[in-house]
Amino acid sequence: YRRQHTKETQLSKFNQTEIKAMLGSYTKVLFVRDPFQRLIATFLQGVGISPSFSSFVQDVLDSGTHNASVAWKPLVSLCRPCLIHYDYVVMFGFLGQELGHLLRQAGLPGASLLPELTDTQAQWTYRWLSEQMFSELSVQQRKQLSRFYGWDLAAFPFSSSFLSD
After folding, report:
1. Into which family does the record put it (predicted)?
2. Contact of 70 with 78, CB cutoff 8 Å
3. 37-50 burial by CB neighbour count: b if 16+ within 10 A, else e?
């Protein structure tokens, strides 16, 4: 796209015609992760200053979706999947399979460019962590989180998410 090398990087800086032309000229890939796993990762990285996971979750809920940090903001509000038609949606936990396919589709030698990905171990670890962290939350916090991430849960197949219930 002719303006791709400008300093403007946010789509909101362009008009509708430019956005349509720009998005049409790229392969659009969206990487998604279970919102509850995103919360756990953010907490473990120490992004919040909360002493416990439960208090961290309460801080997230109190911030609301409009004031939420990009680290835990619902994906639907960040990537606009209803407005932007992504060519590929790659889910965390299946990176090994999906990235190899994506690279082959792009005409690149998939296997030789990827580091070894241990998707099964990551899935098992996050499942265990999710069980531990979910048990720390009150019933009210669980329900509020399910509402907070409701659009993400509807838009993406996070069928094994603790928030899906």
Report:
1. Belongs to the sulfotransferase 2 family.
2. yes
3. bbbbbbbeeeebee
